[in-house]
Amino acid sequence: MAGKHDLRSQDQDTSSYAALPGTEQTDFVPHNMTTMKSHLVPDREVAGSHPSRWVYELTNNDFTVCDMFERARNAKLDCTYYTWDHPHKLVINGNQSFQTPSSRVLSSICLDCHFHFVFKMAWDEAHADARCHSSQARWPLRDNQFPWHHLVWVGSVSDADILDNHSKYYPLLAREHFVCSAPPCTFQVTLEVSEPRMHTWWVQLLLDRDAIREQLKLSREQEPSRYEGATDDWADQAPLNLNTYLKNLLESDPDDVRSISKRNKRFAVLFGPRCFSIFHQLEFSEQVLDRNGVDEGVFTPNVPAPPGGPSGATELGTYRAYLEDVRAEVQCLIHKAGQGPEGPTLCTSALLSDLGCSEVVDVSENPLVNTERYKMLGVLPTQSREVIVNAYKRQWDLLPTRRRTLVDNLMAIANDIGEDQLSDYAMTQSSVFDSQLQRQGTSDDDGVVSQALNFLGLQPPNNYSADSIIEAFRLKLARDPADAVTARSMLMLIARTSTDDSYQAALLMESDSKMSLDTAATILGLDVLDVPWQTAAETASKKLERSKGPEETEVYLDALDAMAVHTDSPTLKQAALELRQANGFLGSSDSRGAAAGQPVDLALPVGLHNIGNTCYLNSLLQYLFTVKPIRDIVLNYEDSRLDLTDESIKARLLGGNKMQMDRGEAVVAQAFAQELATLFRNLQSSDQAATRPSQRLANAVLLSTHTLLHSPKQPAAEQPATALQPPPLPARPSPALPTNPSQDVEMTSSASVPESMDADRSYEKVETTAIERETNPTELAAKEPQQDVDIQMADVEQAVAGASAAGRASETTHETSTAAEQMSGGVATDDAVDSVSVDQKQDVEEVMGSIINRLQAAIRPSSIDGKTGIQLEKIMETFFVTTVNYTKKFDENIYQHEISFDRSITAFPAPDGPCSLYDALGRNFDQQILEESKLSRYTAIKTLPPVLHVLIQRSQSMGSKNGNPVVIPEILYLDRYMDAPHDSPVFRRRVEDWALNDRIADLKSQLGKADPDLSYMDFLDACTNGTQGRNEGGSSGDQESPPRVAAMGDNWDFDGPVEDDFLLEDYSSVEARGTHAAIRGMMDKELVQREKALEQHLDSMKSIPYRLHAVICHRGHLMSGHYWVWICDFEDRVWRWYNDADVKENRDTAEVLQTLSTSGEPYFLCYVRDEDKHEYVDVPKRQRPTELSPEEAAPPSGPTPTDADGDVKVLDAEQSTRGDVVDGDGESPPQYRIE
C-alpha cells in the first residue's frame, strides 16, 4: 500500500483535490466534435465506461447501458450450432484488420460460438494529437488531462437499416455506436456483430463422425485396394480438409485455381453427396460427368477478387471476406477439437491496446466486478487511482443528476482498494460536494442559494420556475436600483446551480446589463410596454429627479436606453441621450468619433466597430446584411420564430445532417436572432460612420452553447477594458494596411473614424481548420501533428514604444489564458463567479457556419423533403449546395455515390504560383486517382442555391498558409461541375476534359522548368555511355541521379527481357541535347493544341452564370491576421471596402478584381445567380430621419453627446435639463430630433 499522501507535498497539485470536476482553473480545453459525438446531448444521461470495463462487459454479454445483448436474448437466435450467451473468446479473423492515419479496423470471431465481432475505430485526423493518451496520466488528475478514453453508447442502427445491410456475405445483427466523451477527443468505435457464416446444418455435417465412418466402411468394401491406406482417423478430418480447400482458394491466382474431383478418396469419404450443398453455398461450380453410373465430375472454386482495402486488407462484405469468415469458423472447430498445431491466440490484448489501455488480469474472478459502484463509475476492481478518477470525472459530466451517487461510489471504491491517496481525494470530493448546491430545489447546506433568494425577496428553498425568479429580479431592481450589480450576481449564481439548460439560459439572458424590454419597463414603473415615447421619457425623468445616487441614475438611464432600442424609437433614443448628458453619464470611449467632429457621409453604409478581435465577424455581418432572405428573417423574426415547446425543439432538425438540438441551443439562437435584428436596424438608421455590435451578439456566434450556459463571468464593473477582449494574439509586428497605392486599390469617399480608435483591435488570433481531402494535390505529403503555439500579442502602444521588445517577444512562446465575456455580458461577485478561458481561434468559414446554425435553430422549417426528411427553410434554400461524391474501384464499372448538403464549396489554390478559380475548384471536383486504394473519385454539383459561397482553402497540412493568388472571375460559370448521368455525352466529354487537364498540367510542369530535365538528359547520356558507366561502377551517376532514374533501372524486366540492341544505339552527347530541344518543341506545340481544344469546349459551357457579390479577405499568417470584406452594390455599380469602422468605395471593377486576383488575401467568395441578383442581394440605403417641426429642429448648445453605441448625436442639449424634461405645471414635454 502506498504511504500516506501528504497534502502539503510540492509534487502534488492539491487544488485538484478540493475542486469538483469541471471547476478547476486550467488551460483551455477544446471541445472537438464529430457527427457521432454530437449525439451526446446533456439531457440523455447515459453512463460511459473505461475501455477495459467496456471490453469486459462486451465479452461477458452484459453491457451496463447498451441493450444489444438484451435485444439478442429477446430475438432467440438459433442460427448457430453453439450457444452464444457465454464469455466470448475473441481471435483475429482473416486478413480483414488494418490501420490508417484516421482509423483502425479489428475483425474478430468468437472461438466458441462463431459470432463475428468487428471493431471499427475512427478519429478526426486533424485532431489526432488531441486523443486521450496514457502519457497524460498523473496524480492528482487535472481537468485538462485525458489519459484514457471513456466510451459512451450513443445509439444503434435501426432495424430497417440492419435489414438493408444484412446479406449472405455479411449477416449483420447489430451495429452499435460508441464515442469517447473526453471533450478534446474525437475517438469513436462502431461495433458490428454478425451471425456465423456456417449454418447449424454445416457444422452437423462436418462433425458427423458416424456418417463419415459409415462412408469409409462402404468405400473399403467397394474398392478395397484403393482405400487400403485409409484409417479411422479420417472421421475427424472433415474440418481439416475443408480448411485446406479454402486456404488454397484464398491464396490462388485466377490462373492457378484447383478443382476438386468428386472421385478424390478423401473428398468422397469426408464429404460426398451429403455435403454437396456446402460447396454450393461456397459458390463452387459443380460439373457432373457420368461414366458408367459413377459421377466423375468436379467442383471448381470461384476465385475471389484480390483484397481491395487499405494496406491490402480484405474488404468486409465481399466474397473474399465471406470465404475468410467461413475458414475462420472452420479453424475454430479445429482448435476446439485439439487438432491445431498450437493453441489459438486471443486478440483481447490487441483490442485493449487499440483502445489505449491494458488488461486487468483475472478480473472475472473478482467478486466485486459486477457490483453497482463499479458499474456506475465504469471501471474494474484493482485498477489504478488515476483510471478511477478519470472515469469519475467523465461520468460527472455525463450524469449531472447522479453526482451525489458518483461521489459515494468513489468513496466506496477507494475503501475497496485501500489506497490512501485515492481515499483522501474521495473524502475531499465528498466534503466539497456537500458544501455546494448542485441544482435548484435540492439541498443548500451552505445557504448560498438561500441568501440569493432572500436578496431577491423569495423564500428558500428554490422550487421556483425561471419566470418566477426573473419576475422577482425585476421587482428587486425596481425597488432598489442601486443594487442592480448585486442583483445580477445573485441571478447568475442561481443560474449556475441549475443543470437545466433552458432554466439556466433564461436566467443568464436576463442577467445581462443590456436589459430586456420587460425589465426596463418594470424599473421605470410602466405597466404597459407600448407607450408613447413622451410618457417613457417623462417617467424616466421623474425617476432621475428622485435618484439617491449615481448607481440608481445609471440604472434608470440604462432602462430608458433599453426601451428606445427595443421599441426602435429614434425620438426616444434622442431623449435618452439628452437625459444621459444632463446627468453626466456620457460614454467617453464611445463618443470619440462624434467628438472629433468628423463629417459623416450618409451615402455610405454604416461601418462596424471592432469590439475585440471581431474583424472577421464584422465582415460576415456586413455581408449578411446585404443578403435579402437573411435580412427578411431577422427583421421580421416573429414570422418564422421557432416555438420553444419541447415538441417543437425535438422535432426541429438542422441542416443536411438533420442534427437535433436541445433547449439551451434554441434559447441562445433566439437571443442571437433578436440581437442581430437590433444591429440590422442600427445599420439602417444610424447617422454615424460606424456602430458597435453588442458583445452578446458576438458571444452568441463565437462561443458554444455549452460555454454560454455553463461558463461563469467576471464582473464587468471590476475588469479593465482589455479584459472584455478575446485572448491575446501572437507577438509580431502588426501587418499594416497598404500605404502605397500600388499595394492596394485607391479609395475614394472615405468616411471613417480615426485609425487609432481600433488600432489595438485590428488583428486577431484565428485558426483555420484545414479541410482535409485524401487526394488534395497540395497535401500529398504525410501529415505530422503540429503543436499549437500561442504567443503573447503586444498592443499597438507597446509595439510603437518598444519595437525591439516586440521583436524579442515574437520569438518567445507564452501560454495565454484570459477571461472571455459570455453572451449575457453581465456581472457577478468574485465569490460567486469565476473566470473562464475560451478559445476564440475560429476562421471566417467556421463563424459563417455558426451564424447560419444559430439562425436555423431560431426559426421553424417551411417544408420537409419527402425523400430525405431534410427540413427546409429560407436559409437552406438560399445558401446550401447539394453535391454528389462518386467513387469507383478500378475493377468495377459502377460508381458508388454519396450526397451531401454543404453551405459552401471548396477551392484549393495551386501549390506553386497563381491559378484560376476554375483550376482551384477543379482540385475539388475533378477526377482523382487513388493508386494505393485502387479507387477513382470525383465530385459533382447536383443542385445550386441562389447564393453560392466558395471557400478558398488556404490552410496547409503543416500549419502554414497557402498565399498563392487565385484569379477571381466576375462571372463564374458552373456548367463544368454539374452532375450528369454516366452514360450521357456530357459526362463522356467531361472525362475527356479531365484527361486534357491532366495532360496540360503535366506539360506545363515540364516546360515550366528553367533548365532542361536533368534526369531525362542524364538518362540519354547514360544510354550513350552505358557500357563505360558500368565498367567504372557508375559512382557519379549513383550520387547525381534522382530516385526515379534508379527506379527505371530497376524495372527493365517488368515487361519482358531487354533487347540486346536497345542500349547499343550510338548517340553523341550533342545529339542527345538536340533531341531534347526537339522534344520540348513538340511539347510546346502539343500544349497549345490541348489548351485550345479545352478552351473551345469550356467556352460552350456558359449557361449557369454566377456573379461575384462579395469577397472576404485575410492578411496575415494562418494563426493570426486581419479580415475585411469587399461588397458589390449592383444598384449603384460600385464596390465598397468594409474594414471594421471604415467604409470606402471604388467604382473600377477591373481594378478591384485585379487587386483581388494578384494576392493571397481572398479567402471567402460570395457569388449570386446572375439572373436573380436583384432578388437576393442588395445594399440597403440608410433610412434618413424625417423632417421635424421648427421646435424640434432647434439648434443644440454645449457639447454634442452620443449614445453608448456612438451612432446617434444629441442636438438640443439645453432642453435636456431635468427642469425642462418634466415641468411640474404640466407643460408639454420638450421636443427631440435626430441629426
UniProtKB/TrEMBL annotation:
Residues 739-753 have a biased composition (Polar residues). It catalyses: Thiol-dependent hydrolysis of ester, thioester, amide, peptide and isopeptide bonds formed by the C-terminal Gly of ubiquitin (a 76-residue protein attached to proteins as an intracellular targeting signal). InterPro entries: Papain-like_cys_pep_sf, Peptidase_C19_UCH, UBP14-like, UCH_repeat_domain, USP, USP_CS. It holds the Pfam family RPT. Residues 725-738 have a biased composition (Pro residues). One of its GO terms (molecular function) is proteasome binding. Residues 714-724 have a biased composition (Low complexity). Keywords: Hydrolase, Protease, Thiol protease, Ubl conjugation pathway. This is ubiquitinyl hydrolase 1.
